[in-house]
Design goal:
Blueprint: H1 2-7, H2 12-37, H3 48-81, H4 88-101, E1 116-117, H5 123-126, H6 134-147, H7 164-170, E2 174-175, E3 185-186, H8 192-197, H9 203-215, H10 222-229, E4 241-242
Parallel strand pairs: 1-2, 3-4
Helix pairs in contact: 3-4
Length: 244
């Protein structure tokens, strides 16, 4: 009995150590319980990694576009050197023209009888349109993929470097099938980088959308989305949203 009593008797330092250990365990259990029942709200920086990846992709797209323009400018510069008889102003006009129509400079804006569905046509078919060469055909297709399809022909004016002169030259040669339904963004489930790729959504817009759906729940209507993003939202976006 005395042996057991001596075994169960602790010194002052041992008692302090035991109390400290028990206290730490209790604190850990309390904190764990609070974290499980009251998870911290996520702020705008939750999706920093997605944001960085998405911004990198946009930067690469911009660099590719700039490379196409640079090639066009070099081509026009070479042409200017091959025509020394032209005045300085004439050469300058040639370079200014290249800025407007890039590598499609040699494609005439001539009338055409062809009619093209801009939601299904490939670049080969698009190049049959007046004033549309390889660059514009590629930009029309790329923008169509980012957009989810064209709802109306006027959206071609949103294509990179598309001006009103070029648009009205092809306006009567392009069409959209009346049964066409655009591809839609799943506003409540698509990842940050997918939402950001759409041309009607800016970086700050996507941050607001993603943080709202995680902090406050699903987005169920266009009116609610306008309230989240603000009045500067592009009204055309409503036709490209799926709330399921």
């Amino acid at each position: 009995m005395n042996t057991f009593k001596r075994f169960m008797t602790f010194s002052r330092s041992e008692r302090i150590a035991i109390v400290t250990m028990v206290s730490v365990i209790v604190i850990i259990l309390i904190v764990k319980n609070l974290v499980v029942t009251h998870p911290p709200k996520r702020d705008y920086f939750k999706h920093d990694l997605d944001s960085i990846v998405a911004r990198r992709q946009l930067m690469l797209d911009s660099l590719r576009m700039a490379d196409s323009i640079e090639k066009a400018e070099k081509s026009m510069s070479f042409r200017a050197k091959q025509t020394p008889h032209l005045s300085f102003r004439a050469k300058q006009r040639e370079v200014e023209k290249s800025h407007l129509i890039a590598d499609d400079a040699s494609v005439p804006l001539r009338p055409s009888r062809i009619e093209v569905d801009i939601n299904t046509a490939d670049t080969t078919l698009l190049k049959q349109l007046p004033g549309i060469g390889s660059a514009f055909a590629r930009w029309i297709v790329e923008y169509r993929e980012r957009l989810g399809g064209y709802r109306k022909t006027e959206q071609l004016l949103e294509v990179y470097r598309m001006d009103s002169t070029r648009f009205y030259a092809i306006k009567d040669n392009v069409k959209i099938d009346s049964s066409f339904i655009p591809n839609r963004l799943r506003i409540n489930s698509d990842a940050f980088k997918i939402l950001l790729r759409h041309p009607y959504l800016e970086f700050d817009d996507v941050k607001k959308i993603v943080n709202h759906r995680e902090q406050k729940g699903l987005i169920t209507s266009w009116q609610q989305l306008v309230g989240i993003i603000g009045d500067e939202i592009n009204p055309e976006l409503q036709y490209y949203i799926d709330y399921q």
